[in-house]
Specification:
Structural class: mainly alpha
Number of helices: 4
Distance between the termini: 24 Å
Radius of gyration: 17 Å
Shape: elongated
Number of domains: 1
Number of strands: 0
Order of helices and strands: HHHH
Length: about 80
């Protein structure tokens, strides 16, 4: 690692804990299931907005607290 990178990483200290995202706040089983659903999303086949709405509806039926359409849409296309 370069000396600049090492210096910066050594200097970085979080002053307060970050907020958990809606996804991180879910139970582990919910996260596993949603990760599988996300892997099935194919923008060449599925309309993103309809897919997001279906994800939200199914999650809410299971009692999972889930974010709004915009956040779920961003999560859906995120690579990691």
């Amino acid at each position: 690692m370069s000396s600049l990178a090492a210096e910066i990483l050594k200097a970085v200290q979080n002053t307060k804990p970050g907020n958990r995202s809606w996804f991180d706040a879910l139970p582990d089983e919910a996260k596993r299931e949603l990760d599988k659903v996300r892997s099935l999303f194919d923008p060449a086949v599925h309309q993103k907005r309809a897919f997001v709405r279906a994800v939200r509806e199914a999650a809410q039926k299971r009692g999972w607290s889930i974010a709004g359409e915009k956040q779920v849409s961003e999560w859906l296309v995120r690579k990691t």
